Amino acid sequence: MNSKIEAILAKKGKAPVSELTAYDYPSARLVDEAGIDMILVGDSLGMVMLGYPDTTHVTLNHMLHHTEAVARAAKNAVVIADMPIHTYETPEQALETARALMAVGADAVKLEGGAAKEEHIRTIVQAGIPVQGHIGLLPQKVKEEGGYRMHGKTDEEAAAIMRDMEAVVRAGAFSVVIECTRHAVAAEITKACPIITIGIGAGKGTCDGEVAVYHDLLGGFPWFVPGFAKQRANISAEITRAVKEYIADVQRPE
Ligand code: KIV
């Protein structure tokens, strides 16, 4: 296994793991130089970079283009590339997609789904490619599921997410994202899980680490901010201020 991934696995139960999305060279270089453990080239780029309403419009070509730029920038962080919708329908197709993303510089790939994707994950892992799973809310299924909502609210749903985690672990993934899942459920899954769990919208301190979307963290996409996002800067306001200042300067008579 890649030594960067081994270092992440060694943090289980010892130190929290930080993960943040980035989609291009400058964002990835800044995030890497700040010391992040893992950079996710998330298919959330469909929304925050390309202006689509959700992630279901993202193609493999989009992901290859952005992953290549991020990989060029990241010197220390593990670069994880998201596998977009319809590119891992079968285990064979999943392996082909994973190989394409690794060929442009990813260290690992991420795909959505637990028990339903066990064989797909196993096929990729057996080919020597590290996989991060993704359970709980699955953004690529948001249309079928009728929107973004908290998962694991009933005992049945919580048990299904636990089974998804077990399937991802059996398949050999090194990590799993738990998205928008009731906090107590995310904590219970993390306790039972031998690999690294990464929460988003799943509560503070419930998982082995957290992932956030770059634009949510930095205030870079003011038109939509998920309720759970903790904004720590307001780069949109700063951009607007600087551009207005520039326009005024250009328009000022000599
Ligand atoms: O695409 C993405 O940014 C993600 C995170 C929300 C985990 O999958």
In short:
By secondary structure, this protein is an alpha/beta fold. It has helices spanning 3-9, 25-33, 45-48, 60-73, 91-103, 118-126, 155-171, 183-192, 214-218, 235-251; strands at 17-21, 38-41, 78-82, 108-110, 131-136, 175-179, 196-200, 209-212. The protein has an eight-stranded parallel β-barrel, surrounded by seven helices.
Strands of the widest sheet, in order across it, are 1-2-3-4-5-6-7-8
> Which spans of ≥5 residues are poorly predicted at pLDDT below 50?
none
Outline type: globular
What about the largest sheet? 8 strands, parallel, barrel
Rg, rounded, reads: 18 Å
User: Helices and strands: which structural class?
Assistant: alpha/beta
Order of helices and strands: HEHEHHEHEHEHEHEEHH
Mean pLDDT: 97
The beta-strand count equals 8
Count of individual helical segments: 10
Helix content: 40-55%
Instruction: Give every kind of bound small molecule, once each.
Output: 3-methyl-2-oxobutanoic acid
CA-CA gap between termini: 63 Å
Percent in strands = 5-15%
Structure characterization notes:
There is one protein chain. The chain is an alpha/beta fold. It is 41% helix and 15% strand. The chain has ten helices and eight strands. The chain has an eight-stranded parallel beta barrel, surrounded by seven helices. It is globular, with a radius of gyration of 18 Å.
